[in-house]
Amino acid sequence: MKLKRFLLIYFLVVLAGVFCFSCIDQSYDLEKLSGKMELFGNSISVPIGTTTIYLDSVVGNLTQDSGSLTVKDGVYVFEFAGSMDMSGLTSALGDFSLAAVDPIMTTTPLYDASLVLWTPYDIPPSVYNYTDNSSMTLPDFSTDLIAVDSVDLSNCIVRIILRSEGLGGPKLKESLNVRFIPQGAVADYFYNGQKIDEWSLGMGDTIDLEVRRLRLAKGSNSLEITQDVTLNIRESGDVTALEPIQTMMYLEMSFVNPLDYEVVYGKVNYSMSGNAEPINFNALGDVLNDNVVLSFYNPQIVLTTESNLGVPILFNLDLGTSNSVTGESRKLNDANFVMTPAGSPQEMRQNRFVIDKTNGTGELFKINPDQITMAYNFATDVASAQNHFVSKNTQTTMNYSMQIPLQFGSDLSIGMGSTMELSLDSQEFLEDQEDLTVGLNLNVKNRIPLNLKLRLTALDADSVALFAVSSGDIKAAAPIDPATGFATGFSQTSTQISLSPAHTSLFKRTNKMRVEFLITASDQNPFVTVQPSDYIELAVGLQMEGGLVVDFKSED
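^ thats the sequence. predicted structure below, dont judge the formating
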């Protein structure tokens, strides 16, 4: 009864002043006065409670199963990251191997000693010239995966051995020389690390050559080598025919090691699909319980690839969201990209693709999703005129990062709230009032760049809801920086909510009030950005019209 005592004392002080400065009428009987008096005959507004809600206290405590809510440059950002499984591609390319090449033996007829009368026979001194060709057929290295044009080989050694049949003599090796001349440009030959266009051997010699590249375009499928053979006998007896036969030179040519490659050039035809791990997206969590639309202005998904693959890739991201409660789902629009290939086998080419509101990312979240799924498809661009190449140590990675800043679009509708303790005893204050019209006077200080609508729910001592009332739309968004969407200050506004007699009666049992703000978009800017320091401050006053009746006798 403290308030009544205060009002009674206030009234008596005023009344005493009246008696001190007025004439006293002895016929006026105080005993006959009524115990009830009406104070403040027109209206009174009594403050009953205040509350301040900082956005950080609502948003900053949210947690995520996958990803995190961080603050970057003063902006709340939901962040998620992961990778796409590219092992299917690297495995397919890693399983590619070159077929084996069969060895060859070439015979070249030399001096014909089949008609000599005796052996050994000293071949007469002279210069004898012979010409022949060797051809080593190469297999078709192409597979369903790669139509091979050329190959850079790894540790590929070709061994050439010369031996004779029917010839001898102390100077056979010095007298017989073979000059080898590769035909065409099918292979690149190296000797002692130096590229060579021809080489020579004496009879009985062996040479190991490194073949670093094979060019198989335009139907080239063999190694063609011309042998110019010179038998230069200076003195009789240097070279002899050992048997009365057609003497011969044998050339053996073979690959010492199984054929291995460093890089294969040609058209690659491959496609694959996969799925990334789904993201459980709680977003604003309990804040969304009564929401209508969650409108993020510009969520971004950034795809990054790094690869030494020399193949242009057509890539499609099939990203979707779903709400398990409502059954609604949304899909991303037009997320098709071309991964630029590496320029050389030594380069690790990076690609970066940004998917944003132009691809419809904002629409994905308007259904208040609780799960984000990502499927992907990619295929090599066989129609590209650019040549393809695949390295033996192909490395390809694809990662994604998703950033959802709390920048809200024009159709946002989101709720947040707080419980406010009342600063007076409503039951004591209003228990004797019968004809009083009661309302709530709301003073709002808004540092959030969004408009508001208020809903107040009266609660009794056990937090049981007694009644609820709502304000109209309060166009009181904080002033906005159009470039960033940040609030640059605060706005202040007042509004009133009238209580019906039924509500007034229930208000007598009210101990606290739950304050809920329905936040809607501002028409000041296409988007707004909220910060942890943004807040809403509400002061609630009890507005009474018709005078407050106080019964002084009840104070005895």
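Residues 56 and 532 are 4 Å apart (CA to CA).
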